[in-house]
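Possible regression after last week's pipeline update?

I re-ran a chain I had predicted before the update to compare outputs. Posting the input and the new output here so someone can diff against the archived version. Not blocking, just want to make sure nothing changed silently.
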Amino acid sequence: MIRPLQKTLALALLLAPLAAQADRYRVEALVFLNPTPSESGHAPQHPDIPQALALDDSNGLRAAGISLLPDSNSVLSAEWNQLRASKRYQPLLRLAWIQDQPGGGEGPALRLYAPAGDGVSGLDGWLRLSAGRFPHLEADLEYVQTVAGEALAYRLREKRKAPTPALLYLDSARLGVLTRVSRVD
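New output (post-update):
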């Protein structure tokens, strides 16, 4: 007859390999602007960002199982350099991170903020990786620019399944995000 303590120990030994194989993902994102005026702007709406973690919040990131990676570790360096050399696109921000156990749709979001320098213009919003059966990437970004003294905003709100390790492109008429999500062994 198996005693309760032995039963608990046996269950723990059976589940240990599953815990060791917890989901871990590497995410890379390049955010850029298509300055060609193919979309008329609207009044700034400001993405809902209170739940998003600031990139300099090391304690919050660590608690959420997120490790930011330096630009030198980027696998999208060639794409970033192409954006920088392009006359058509304006690169705004690049970011790479590893995330442990992304969880469902209400998991941690990363706040992306890149002001343009005039106190009004720039990028603001967030990116979120969630994983159920498949990883998904969600973005809520807004780019604001001043045109003839008026602040005009361009928004990108999208959630898509992120095939691994393929490239994924999220876009609106003015904003684009090129991402790569891959499982980390």
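Follow-up from reviewer: compared with the archived run. Residues 22-183 form one domain. Marking as no regression found.
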